[in-house]
Structure formats: structure tokens, C-alpha cells
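For the sake of clarity, the format in which proteins appear in this thesis is described at this point. The record quoted next illustrates the convention:

___
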Amino acid sequence: MKKLLLIFLITLFAATSFAQKFDKEKLDLYFQTLENNNKFMGSVSLSENGKIIYTKSIGFSDVESKTKPNQTTKYRIGSISKSFTSALVFRAAEENKLSLDTKISKYFPNIKNADKIGISNLLNHRSGIHSFTDNENYLSWNTQKKSEEELLKIIEDGGSDFDPDTKADYSNSNYVLLSFILEKIYKKPYSEILQEKIIKPIGLKNTYVGGKINLKNNEANSYTFENNWIKETETDLSIPLGAGAIVSTPSDLLQFADALFNGRIISEKSLKLMETIKDDYGSGLFQMPFGTKKAFGHTGGIDGFSSNYGYFPEEKVAFALTSNGSNYTNNNIAIAVLNAVFNQPYEIPAFKTFELPSADLDQYLGIYSSKDIPLKITVTKNDTTLMAQATGQSAFPLVASDKNIFKFDHAGIVLEFMPANKTMILKQGGKNYNFIKD
């Protein structure tokens, strides 16, 4: 559901060849290292030719009771739900229940530009409809149940961010509207449509539209890390629907991907439309390059949950990560997993910390501005923890890794301070941005 600080993108040097056997012990050690350093809680699966070749679960599905996760522990998958919803829409088109060219004024006449927005524009984020999850007050009501009428009012009031089909911008509102359209044409709740059209036909055992988290059903709570794991609140899943309300496991996600990309849910023609990328967006899919190889998939984030999956059509290889607590970037984890399966080198990370007393943090405090990017970063402290907050984003904790160097591993951020010069360098995604203290 929510936008992440770092867009998921795998870019590596060209991979050479794929072999069925890989170093399982090294990958086990990689995940053990993440677990020992409180960097990741969750599960991962790999498959080849539709068969699971590796699974791993680490951390706790419930920290309070110290419950360990297993292969059937279920996680909220957030925006990966969009891949399911997109497939349902294309399936409906194949059944002549709708046309992708139909304007949404047929269903939602009060939405701005409804007579110019086609269903296809909702699918590939080219509608211009404002994403309600970007509203400043969203986190004040996201835990409260909402009706279709209430959500439509919120979306209508959000208006339009740009003229339809002139560009693309990610909008959760699009996929909530698609959920409502599916319910109207099938005259059933979204949850039942999902069961009937995808879950039962391909035999998914641990996938469904979620409700309130139920630990007795082996569902995971979600957490953020601030010196220890802190339980997150729960978004009421009446809000995201087909934009982010599905619960699943990595193994089920791989089974879904194998069925989707091998013609068992929609036709090859429809799949090609899902895969068609324009201005970085497909229809419920993103393209994920890995050297000379190319995967299609999606990422997800809701509350403290984060997830991603990808399918390599040529190699018939797929991966899926579902996390209920991450203090490290999932992008790095995905890269390590794919390096392992494609027999490429990767390192076991070394997580060292540099202890500083509270008084020593004072030299870093202040507001920093940059000529490189239109962003201000406010640096504060909470006892012995340095905190940073970028314009329009939530504050996040920093961990000292060396003198004047702090990290936020969850988003792959490094801040290097030069107190004498009142400057700072932000490092993220292979780029450096210079900042000066105001």
C-alpha cells in the first residue's frame, strides 16, 4: 500500500548461467546473520519450473509470545495484491464482463475526469486520480473500517493530480476503484471473486483477503525496529481491498506467479498487456532487471509488513519475500537471494555498531538543505539515538557504524557528517547528495 523510501529495483552485473544446485548453507548463513542482528523477520521462498527449491523463515511471527514463523505463516502482502486484482480484471475482460476501454464514469460519475479515464488507465496508474494514502490525515483513520460510500467520497474529494493518460503516478485509489468495479460486475464481494477465480482453481492454501490479524490462524503481527521490535497498528483491510488487503505466504506467491505466467489464470495476450511497461508501470506488474535477465513482479508495504516477488519467464525461476519486520532493505536481500540461485558471488553482511554517548550526538543536530535535491532533513535525537526526518516523511532512527557515519539499513541510507564544516552527505542507491546545515 504505502510508498517506500527506496523503489525496489534489482540492477547487477550480467549474470552468467543458472544451475539448479546452489550453496544452500551460505544462504542459510546469510539469513541467520540477518536474524542475529535484528535486521529481518519473515519468510523467503525460491522456485524453479514451478517447484520450491528453497524456503527459510526467521525472526518471530509474534514477538510478545516469541512465536517462530514457519512455511505456512501468513503475512499481509500489501501492494502485491495489485497483481491479483489486475489478473482478475483481465479475466473479467476475457469473460466479456467488462472492456478495458470503458470509461469509469459508467461506475463513478462523480470522480473528476471520470469520462476521460478508462479502466486500463486505472490498471497502469495513468488515471491522474489522487492516491488517498498520500493524504496527510491518512494515518489518523486507516485503522477504522470504511464503507464503499465513505471511500468513494474520500477518492472524489482527492481530485486529480494530472490529466488522464498524460503520464503515470502510483495511486492506491486506482486499485480500490478496480475492486469496486469487480464487485459490481460479479455482484459478489472482492474476497469471493478472488477465491472463485484464482485461489481455488490454482490450489492456493494460505491466501485470502485478510481481516483483523489472527495469531491462532498462524498470521503474523508486524513490527518496526527502534532499539527493539515495536508492534505496529493494523490498517483496517476494508480500506485497501484489491490495492493491498491480501494475506499470503512466499510459497503461495510463487504458485500464483507460476500460474499467472504460464497461462493458468489469464491468456498469453492478457499477460502481455499486464507486462507492457509505460513510464515505469505495467498493469499490476513492475519490470525487475537482474543483469541480462528480466523478471516481472511487484512490491508491497503495509503497516510494518513489506514484501516482494518476481518471476523470470525465460529461466522459469521465481522468488518471494514476505516480512513482518525489517531493519534492512529488502532490495539487498532480494539481490543476495538471486545471486545465490544464479550462482553469483555475494557477501554475508557485517553489521558493526559504533557506540556514542548522548552528548556526542549534539554536534549533528540541525536542519540540513541541499542544492542537489529539493529536500530538507531535520536531525534530532531521542536519548542516545540519532533521528532523521526528510520533508514529508516520517522520522527514522540512525545507527552509528563509524565516527560521523550513520545508517538506516531499512532504506539503504547512509549519512556521513562533517561537523567542522557543518555539512553532510546523504548516500542512497549508489548516489551522493550534499547537504549544508542551515
